[in-house]
Amino acid sequence: MEVIHSLGEIGSLTEMTGVSLGTFDGLHKGHITLIKTLKEDCKLQNLKSVIYTFSNHPRELINSKNSPRLIINNKQKIDLFYKMGIDFLVMVKFDNFQKNIRAEDFIEEILLKKLNMKAAIVGWDCHFGRKAEGNIELLKEFSQKYDFDLTVVPPLKIDNEIISSTSIRSQLSKGLIDKVNLFLGRNYSITGRVIKGKQFGGTQGFPTANISVDLSLCLPKSGVYITRTVIDRIIYKSITNVGFNPTFNQRNYNIETYIFDFSKNIYDKEVTVEFLHKIRDDIKFDNVENLYKQVKTDIDYAKNYFNI
Ligand SMILES: Cc1cc2nc3c(=O)[nH]c(=O)nc-3n(C[C@H](O)[C@H](O)[C@H](O)COP(=O)(O)O)c2cc1C
Ligand SMILES: Nc1ncnc2c1ncn2[C@@H]1O[C@H](COP(=O)(O)OP(=O)(O)OP(=O)(O)O)[C@@H](O)[C@H]1O
Fold first, then answer.
1. What is the torsional sign of CA 88, 93, 97, 98?
2. Which pairs from 248-257 meet CB under 8 Å and 24+ separation?
């Protein structure tokens, strides 16, 4: 997969292409359905597959006060597109040029001239160009004028609810991890380096790996979760506490994971924590004895979940 970070980088593609466009935050099941259609259409017509997306959320520029926190960072986004077998990932900054380009110019100058597009594969609600004026109708009109194929993918729903990045952000903030995973079509995960914590847990029989996280992302609601932790590609069963450790009046959002049957030193290692199920909200305990008693109950609950 070739990643293109600015339009200047590509004079114009020589290969004929099929293109899907959008923000694609989270790369959820709806996006995956669209991308599968893109890949099938490209295979049938012997085209290279192109994703046109942004490295920042468009609302950062359009409505900065309401700009959402992203579900995944750009590294995760690139990894996921790579795994899906995309040929060209155009991931440009959403800047004033992107914000102000007329929808007609976007089709003619970018999709047709730069990307050599022969097929557009888009979701039913696709919008692009200045003030989001470009839509399916305009693509239809231009597909006849310039003779390119147009496929419109209907919305994928679960229990009658359209899967969207917006709904996944709301579920994350409510701690509805089972639903998040259903909508993503994979386990929601956080990747970060292991850093030093207070080192109290170890003295109580549950040493925890504290993980540094990108606090600008949309993170799950505080609480205790059943998780799997991936270290050097090996998957371990674990339990994870996220939030502010209210018993200790901590100010920072913190992620710490207790990996079952594990005793290696992993400071500084990059690990990925996959969230499977929420056990409870976090609690401010009157004393640490009660906190540790509860943690032991949580650990038993998680071990029971894993049948260990
Ligand atoms: C499974 C689990 C559940 C936890 N639940 C809470 C909680 O409800 N309230 C809280 O203040 N801290 C909670 N903690 C955080 C503890 O305060 C913390 O793990 C302990 O102080 C060790 O911190 P350290 O890793 O920095 O040494 C929890 C930790 C774990 C591993
Ligand atoms: N549930 C879905 N089923 C099929 N296609 C989808 C679905 N959700 C989004 N798409 C399509 O994927 C492309 C990228 O969409 P976009 O990034 O706007 O996703 P979104 O999840 O709808 O985000 P938001 O919640 O911010 O509106 C668009 O063409 C869009 O129509």
1. positive
2. 248/198, 252/215, 253/213, 253/215, 253/219, 253/222, 254/197, 254/210, 255/190, 255/192, 255/210, 255/211, 255/213, 256/197, 256/201, 256/208, 256/209, 256/210, 256/211, 257/208, 257/209, 257/211, 257/227, 257/229
| pLDDT tens by residue, 81-108 | 999 999 999 999 999 999 999 999 999 9
Going by their DSSP bridges, the two strands 234-243 and 254-259 should be labelled as antiparallel
152 lines ligand 2 (CB under 6 A): no
**From the alpha carbon of 280, which atom of ligand 1 is closest?**
8
Q: 254 near 242, Cβ under 8 Å?
A: yes
Q: Is 125 in the pocket of ligand 2 (CB under 6 A)?
A: yes
Is residue 170's pLDDT more than 80?
Answer: yes
Task: Answer yes or no: is the C-beta of 22 below 6 A from any ligand 2 atom.
Answer: yes
Mutation probe of ligand 1 site: the residue of 208, 267, 294 with most atoms within 8 A of C-beta:
208
Question: In angstroms, rounded to a whole number, what is the distance separating the alpha carbons of residues 175 and 226?
Answer: 12
Give residue 205's pLDDT.
80
Sole residue written with tokens 């030093």:
196
What's the CA gap between 221 and 207, in Å, rounded?
22
Instruction: Please name the residue whose Cα sits nearest to atom 11 of ligand 2.
Output: 123
158 φψ region: left (φ > 0), alpha (ψ -120 to 50), beta (else): beta
Name all domains of the chain by residue range, CATH numbers in brackets. 2-162 (3.40.50.620), 187-306 (2.40.30.30)
Tokens 């049938």 identify what position?
44
Q: Evaluate: CB of 70 within 6 angstroms of ligand 2.
A: no
